[in-house]
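Quick look at the format.
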Amino acid sequence: MTETEMKLRTKQFALRVLRLAAALPRTIAADVIRRQVVRSGTAVASGYRAVCRAKSGADFAYKLRVVEEEADETALRLELITEDKMLPGGQVTPLLKEADEITAMMVSAQKTARGLRPPAGPKSKIQIPKSA
């Protein structure tokens, strides 16, 4: 998937989250979840744009991790919406699947990015952990 395609995909994800949030009932619990899911769901798109502007390999890897975390947080909130029956599962499941796919793509991109980082030189004071 190209950078442009991923920007569009994450933006569409954010828009879908906004629409789903608008459909939530007006209860105390739903209002809390609404704010949280809107924040994390839109952060996926803004975070991916930040990934595209990374200044270094370390910055790139860090920003990928942030997008992964936001997508995973969104997935949790979508699960809560379904399990608390705030909305029918059929309305939430496609968005939950997309959140899981975005999370997986960010994890995969991080693994690829780690493989591309050059190892620290013998005189470097910064050591890359063997598990990285």
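Next, a different chain entirely:
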Amino acid sequence: MHSNLPGSILAIDLGEKRIGLALSDAGRLIARSYGMFLRQSRREDFARYEEIIQKEGVTLVLMGLPLRDGAENSATMWVRDYAADLARVLSVPVTLWDESYSSQQAAASLSERGIRAKKQKGRIDAAAAAFILQSYLEAHYPTELSELPDL
């Protein structure tokens, strides 16, 4: 399910140890890295998401779904279970989106910006969440250049 309500989208790149976050603008055109935090319990993680939702005016949560060559696997099932629990407690809808290659794209992007592999660790999760979110935005809210306002 995805929301047609105006407002920001919070993207979550769920990892075993770290959770990367990205946020769209309210017009749902651009994704930006929002940060990363270490996983705690589901209850603590979910409370943190709800804080961000309230603070940032989020109307949809997008959870990256780890498919391997389009196929489901144990990580996919774990994320589906986590997302289902999350959807039961959040004040906004939760939807899943294929996160294939987002971590590789994030690492490449950080490398291109001169950030060495050792320093990428903490940033890669948030950057991956931004790639997942941008992919979703481009698929669901295509914008023609002619629709953009004149500057």
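Residues 8-147 form a domain with the Nucleotidyltransferase; domain 5 fold (CATH 3.30.420.140).

See the schema section for token definitions.
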